Each structure stands twice: as structure tokens, then as C-alpha cells.
Amino acid sequence: MKCAFHAAQAFSGTSTIDLIPLKKELAQILHPISMYPRDVEKKRKIDFLKKASEYAQNYHSSIQQVYVRYVDAEQQVLIANSEGKYIEDTRVRSRFVIQSIAAEDNKLQAGFYAPGSSKGFEFLEHLDLQHYAHEASRIAVTMLNASPCPSGKFPVIIDNEFGGVLFHEACGHGLEASAVAKNNSVFANRIGEKVASDIVTYIDDGTLPNEWGSINIDDEGEHSRKNILIENGILKGYLIDKLNGRRMDAESTGSSRRESYRFAPTSRMTNTYIAPGKSTREDIISNTENGIYAKYMGGGQVDPATGDYNFAIMEAYLVKDGKLGKPVRGATLIGNGPTTIKHIDMIGNNLSHGAGMCGASSGSIPVNVGQPMLRVSEITVGGSEGGN
User: Where does the Metalloprotease TldD/E central domain lie (predicted)?
Assistant: First the structure.
């Protein structure tokens, strides 16, 4: 009421405002829920977490600590605007998080996994808890005895699933209209230009059934859709919200998102991924003579205006003569996103997605990042061992 009062005081004299009657729409339910989390007793959820903790703890004697968490959320959305739009939606998401800590001879290493879905409790019921628990512990145990990673420029194989976080950060943000409309992106004003390798097709698709970053409608009431951003290396489009769309003289792509009503919506990603190619995992590894294999990516930093990035690798291996070698620790990828996507020379056929949270001006929102296994012909690798 206070905001409405102050807005009314901004008008002087008499003004005529044409009122457009609200017309209610129905949001198409693309991501059905079978077990709403609110209907599941807490003990049932706790029992699952205890079981996951036991799986992780019992994996190896060096596992000293296990952290498990289950998060579920139900968000009610109502959008009414001056264009006459009136639409409601309910968003339900569930996520399982596990971290294992291995310790030996004063050394500590962590392994982490955090799958999520736009589902209710059925997500946890059908989740392979043992697999994810064992993976978190396996990563920690494996890296405990890893050798220091060499530094230098190498071909780098990046595995599928959460490997896509590198391109989400280094390229995806540069394709959002919030950056493009202000010319704060290296991709601004380049529609139709070649910006990536011929084998790269980059997609954002909020309609993927029950995926973590999926939505029925965006936060301006536009229906979710599949947006092809880069096709066979050619820049085809951007992720556009209404405000920046007016600045760009372009239509919304159903990409306006926000954490809650406390934030103004803006262009954001949903499920963003590199489309699968034709190579097998075995092809990519066997055709790499001397490189680094990044099995699981860690955190990183990126400058969205330039695409310059710095990413840690949680689990990495040397590749020698077309075969996987010993595990290495302390590996960091240093490069530039627009340059890196031009140097992708092999893409696998094993597309998979990984869940994450993305923070920006409109808050923290769930997003999927994804890709098949792929190879970049050369990336600078910062390691814990000098030289190569």
C-alpha cells in the first residue's frame, strides 16, 4: 500500500490511464509432481539421509566425515501485469547433497555430489543413493593419494554432466540479454556470426521434463521454451526478458527469472547444455596423446564481460598415449570462454545434466548445466607442479 501511495503521488494534475482487464491463463503443467514434499513425514526423509550417510561412511576406512542434506521447496507464483496477463503456477523442487571427507597422514580431500530435480519426494525415492554416496566417497579417497598436477597448455577432456558448468559461466551469461542489451558481452551484436567450433550447438531448454532448472512459465508469465543459442558454431539468439527485449527491439524468449517477488526479474538460464555429438567416450580418450581428463569440475570464477575464467577441477587424471593415467590434484583450468568453444574438436554422444544454483541480480535460482564428454584442443592448466 505504501508503494502504491508513493507511486500515485508521482502524478501531477489529471491523467488518463487505460486499464486493460486481466485475462487469466492456465500454465501448462510440463513437470508433473506425484508426491508433494509437504505430504511426506520428516522421519521418512531422515531415514533416507541416514542410509546415504552409512553408504558413504562405509565406502573406505579413510572416510572421516560425511555431510548429507535434503532440500525440498514448493513455490507459489502469481503474475499479473499491466498488459492484462494473469497467470499462476506452482514450482516444486527436491535436491540431495552429499559430501565426503577423506583423511590420511595429515592430508584431507573432499568429494561432492548434489543431484536435483523439479520433482517431489518421488525424486529421492527413485534416487540411487548408494551410487551417489559411493561417488562422493570415491572422489575423496581417489584424490587423497593423487600426484600434483603439471602446469602448461594441454588438450583437456571435460566429462559430461556438471562439466557443463564451465560453459554456463564462461559463455551462458554472455548470452543473457541483461549483458547483451548493455553491450557488456563479447556476444553482443553478433547474430549470424561464427562464434564456436562447427560441431558446437548450445541450447537452453526450460521444457525438459522435471529437470532441476525447468519451468512451466518464466517470471513474467511467458511460457517456457527451447532456445537454440548457437547452432553448428553460428550465433542464433540470446536469452531475453521483456525489459531488455525492449532495449534490443526483440521478443521475450521465456527466459525471465527471479528468486522470489523480492527481486526484479531479468534474463537467466534454465537448463543450458551443449548438444551431443557422434564420438564415443573411448574415441575421445584414445585420440588424446598427452592431456588432462577433468572428470568432475569444482568451483570457479568468470568475468562475464570478457568470458575469462578460472575453474578448479575436483577430480582429474593425466591422459598418456590414449589411455587414462594417474589421478592428479590441484588442477585449474584458465582461459576464455568464447575462445574455448572455438577449440572444441570432439564431442561425445553421452549427454547428461548436473544441478546447480546460479546467483545474479535477480537472486539465486536453480539451473541445470549439461554436456556430453568433450575435448578442447588446448587450455592452460594451472597445477601444483611446475612445468610439464
Answer: 37-144
Q: What are phi and psi of 246, to 5 degrees?
A: -65, -35
Nearest-angstrom CA–CA distance, 288 and 224: 39
What DSSP line would sit under 109-136, residue for residue?
A: EEEEE--EES--THHHHTS-HHHHHHHH
Q: What is the per-residue pLDDT for 15?
A: 60
- 8-state DSSP, 14: -
- Kindly report the backbone phi and psi dihedral angles of residue 136, in degrees, each rounded to the nearest multiple of 5, phi listed first: -60, -45
Beta bridge partners of 202: 230, 274
Spell out the domains of the chain, with CATH numbers in brackets.
25-145 (3.30.2290.10), 148-382 (no CATH)
Q: Within 13 Å and on the Cβ side, how many CA atoms surround 156?
A: 32
Task: Give the tens place of pLDDT for each residue, 28-73.
Answer: 899 999 999 999 999 999 999 999 999 999 999 999 999 999 999 9
The residue among 351, 388, 353 whose CA lies nearest residue 373 is 351
Average pLDDT of 206-216? 97
Q: Cα–Cα distances in Å, from 49 out to 40, 60, 270, 365?
A: 14, 18, 28, 24
- Which pLDDT tens digit goes with each residue over 119-149? 999 999 999 999 999 999 999 999 999 999 9
pLDDT bucket at 12, cuts 50 / 70 / 90? low
Query: Which single residue is written with the C-alpha cell 567416450?
Result: 281
For the beta carbon of residue 87, count every other beta carbon within 10 angstroms: 21
Which CA distances in Å does 60 have to 49, 96, 128, 140?
18, 21, 19, 10
DSSP 172: I
Q: At what angle do helices 129-144 and 42-57 cross, to 10 degrees?
A: 40
Q: Which residues pair with 359 in a beta bridge?
A: 364
